[in-house]
Design brief:
By secondary structure, this protein is an alpha+beta fold. 24% of the residues lie in helices and 32% in strands. The protein has 6 helices and 13 strands. Strand 11 and strand 12 form a beta hairpin. Bound molecules: 2-oxoglutaric acid.
Length: 238
């Protein structure tokens, strides 16, 4: 069963691409052109990201601060700590996509947490979502390498709440890796990644040595994300 679940979850992570294979920038070297950030305070665009691309990303990669409050975060953590109690962080992932993590798929939640999950679903998705919620617990020294979620197992929208810490996510354009956006994901925020952001960009969670936003270091501690996904479209009928 554990093997089945692990295999099933890991199927989301496809096309893990070492950062060095796609681009050679580090967060320190990002130098965004001066821009009006009022529309996207949590996004930092690479200079090669033109205005049309920026507008598309602002639409397709949204970050909503304080989506949950402190009490709701504590309730989620309480239920999740029980779930993770007996599992260890893993450092040897089969396709090297993720380092220092443990994870689970959760089909049901207690009453309070179920309300939060339903709020997420109603807010972030225009259609149905998969029943199981993916929960990913990254150790302080853990990180997720650039990857595209499998199009076979996941539809056009991925949305997650970040617990315990601020962190930095980067989206790198698959065809033009010099085009990328760095995103600050505050603790208790919700991100919604859909359409172009979901299909045209790899995404990653940076490790602490690279974790900078607008020149400031963002030190990630342990991070738990609670992630919902839309189902993949049904196969075409002949
Ligand atoms: O932890 C997160 O919010 C992102 C997880 C992720 O990259 C994924 O599930 O594909």
């Amino acid at each position: 069963m554990v093997f089945y679940i692990a295999k099933n979850i890991r199927a989301f992570f496809k096309h893990a691409i070492p950062l060095s294979a796609t681009c050679s920038h580090s967060a320190r070297s990002i130098c965004s052109t001066p821009t009006d950030n009022s529309n996207s305070p949590n996004l930092e665009f690479s200079p090669e990201c033109d205005e049309a691309m920026r507008q598309m990303l602002v639409k397709d990669f949204q970050i909503h601060k304080d989506f949950i409050n402190v009490e709701e975060e504590n309730n989620l953590l309480e239920e999740l700590e029980l779930k993770f109690k007996r599992s260890r962080y893993q450092y040897d992932h089969w396709d090297d996509a993720i380092h220092g993590y443990r994870e689970t798929e959760k089909p049901t939640w207690n009453k309070e947490n179920d309300c939060v999950i339903n709020r997420l679903r109603n807010f972030a998705f225009s259609t149905t979502t998969m029943q199981h919620v993916h929960v990913l617990d990254l150790a302080e020294n853990g990180h997720i390498k650039p990857h595209l979620d499998s199009i076979k197992f996941c539809g056009n929208t991925i949305s997650g709440i970040s617990l315990l810490t601020d962190s930095v996510m980067r989206l790198i354009h698959i065809q033009r890796p010099q085009v990328f956006v760095t995103a600050l994901l505050p603790r208790r925020s919700l991100y919604i990644m859909k359409d172009s952001a979901r299909y045209e960009f790899n995404h990653e969670i940076l490790n602490n040595s690279e974790s900078f936003f607008r020149g400031e270091q963002v030190t990630k501690t342990r991070r738990i994300s609670v992630i919902c996904r839309s189902p993949p479209p049904p196969p075409p009928t002949s």
